[in-house]
Amino acid sequence: MQHIYLDHAATTPLHPDVLEAMLPYYREFHGNPSSLHSFGQRTRHAVDEARSVIAESLHALPSEIIFTSGGTEADNTAIMGIATALKDKGRHIITSQIEHHAVIDTCAFLEKNGYDVTYIPVDKQGRVSPESVRQAIREDTILISIMYGNNEVGTVQPISEIGAIAQEKGIYFHTDAVQAYGMERMDVRSLPVDLLSISAHKINGPKGMGALYIGKNVKINPHLHGGNQEKKRRAGTENVAGIIGFAKAAEISGRTLEDHRMQYEKYRSIMLEAWSEMNVPFTVNGSLEHYLPHILNVSFPGTRTEMMLMNLDIAGIAAASGSACTAGSFEVSHVLEAMGVAQEILQSALRFSFGYGNTEEQIHEAAIKTGEIVLRVSKAER
Length: 382
Ligand SMILES: *Cc1c(COP(=O)(O)O)cnc(C)c1O
What we know:
Blueprint: E1 4-5, H1 16-22, H2 24-27, H3 38-58, E2 65-68, H4 71-85, E3 92-96, H5 101-111, E4 116-120, H6 130-136, E5 141-145, H7 159-169, E6 172-176, E7 195-199, E8 210-214, H8 240-277, E9 283-285, E10 295-299, H9 305-314, E11 317-318, H10 334-338, H11 343-346, E12 349-353, H12 360-381
Parallel strand pairs: 1-11, 3-4, 3-5, 5-6, 6-7
Antiparallel strand pairs: 2-8, 7-8, 9-10, 10-12
The structure holds pyridoxal-5'-phosphate.
Pyridoxal-5'-phosphate binds near residues 75 and 176.
């Protein structure tokens, strides 16, 4: 049986060229970039080059990029870093109800520690209205954090509009761009953002590697204290091989972005058309106008998510619920809940996410098998 991996929003396989780029930094070049001898110089130089590549991918300056242990740390650093730096100015933060837990839970932690957080609701498509952000702004608002593209339903937010409001009011704006990076072109020279999080393992880079863009006029408190690395904004010896791999992955994804978008649009149509032809009832969750093409969140009324995922796994297809599915317990998605979808839709949602390595044949096969399982399972439920 051929296994078909359709869970690229959770993580992606390492690109072979990325692995090749990383290997010398495990095998030969072990110097600490902070060391002054030639061993250190060698890796210092490589880290500098990689930083330039990541910066260039966002049209940022190398000095505006700090490397982190992933998207989660980038989000935590941005939010905690601003919250603690500006605590005497105000303690109100605005975010949305559909953020990744790395943002929501960080905000919830701050709420327990004397901060106030407004969680902006979204519409049926999962979009935040810029006007509702404007209305939530108070005298003591210090940060707005709204994600670029949602990891469960793929909805892309009106980042430029929200950023423009933040800028007009003189409030820092952070965006979690982890899921959108590699799928959307980003230019921080025109995009009004102050902080932006990205992660390597969502773009065929290594796990445990990410970065935070911090605009040159933005002052944050470090989240990790210790050495002088990252200009004292993130202590700890650099993950040299990870950084090299991240830069390689960014370079590849930058080169292939348009091709991949087109490919994933095709994959979406293949799936949707197959289900229509099979008379499988379904609804697409998210926006049909503003979306990341690699994420397809769909509900099959009459089925249950857990049952579907189990049957798909048996058929060799790896999909996801879109929500955190921890051992034994199954939580409904806070994103779909915020979108106000009906119970039936909420309980039967599946996320298919495409990536490097998928082929049209695989997608076709996955669509047919999924359709067959839906027809079988929903018949049994009736
Ligand atoms: C995956 C993801 C994260 C977390 O990134 P890690 O590198 O896994 O820590 C944060 N936000 C979004 C939107 C994500 O998809």
